[in-house]
Amino acid sequence: MATQDDSTPTAMSRWAPDLVDVLVYVVVLGLFVEYLPSVISETFTLSLLTAVLLKGVLEVVVRIKKRARARFTAARTPLGKVVAGLLLWGVLVGSSSSCSSSSTSSSATGSASGASCR
């Protein structure tokens, strides 16, 4: 009888955390739609699409932030530290300001993509 080696990750274990994240985003978005009249989502499909889009954007922002932080720690000169610090600050401010601009456009289009940024 052969034993199964559990040390190698399966395909399901690689994408399971992402699926859980998307499902949590859908539930939270559904709660916002249910209890806040300013958040409008026409269909479940739009809520699901919004959750997938949010997951993608958050993954991109986290990767950019990690690269900027690595550049900050790798900088040797004071000028390099200042430039890398400004880059990191720009990523942090830019990612939070995109939430405020998307919340104003979401009410006009009928999607609730801006609700998660509040």
SSE blueprint and pairings:
Elements lengths: L10 H25 L8 H31 L3 H32 L9
Helix pairs in contact: 1-2, 2-3
H-E string: HHH
* DSSP strand tally: 0
Cα shape: flat
* Mean pLDDT, all residues: 78
Number of helices: 3
Q: Strand portion, in percent?
A: under 5%
C-alpha-based Rg, rounded: 19 Å
Distance between the termini: 55 Å
Structural class: mainly alpha
Low-confidence stretches: 100-118
Profile the largest sheet: none
What is the helix fraction of residues, given as a range?
over 70%
Explained architecture:
It contains 3 helices and no strands. The model is unreliable at 100-118 (pLDDT under 50). It is mostly helical and 118 residues long. The protein has helices spanning 11-35, 44-74, 78-109. Helices cover 75% and strands 0% of the residues. α1 crosses α2 and α2 runs antiparallel to α3.
Note the main attributes of this structure.
single chain; 118 residues; mainly alpha; 75% helix; 0% strand; flat; disordered C terminus
Provide a concise account of the structure shown.
This protein is mostly helical and 118 residues long.
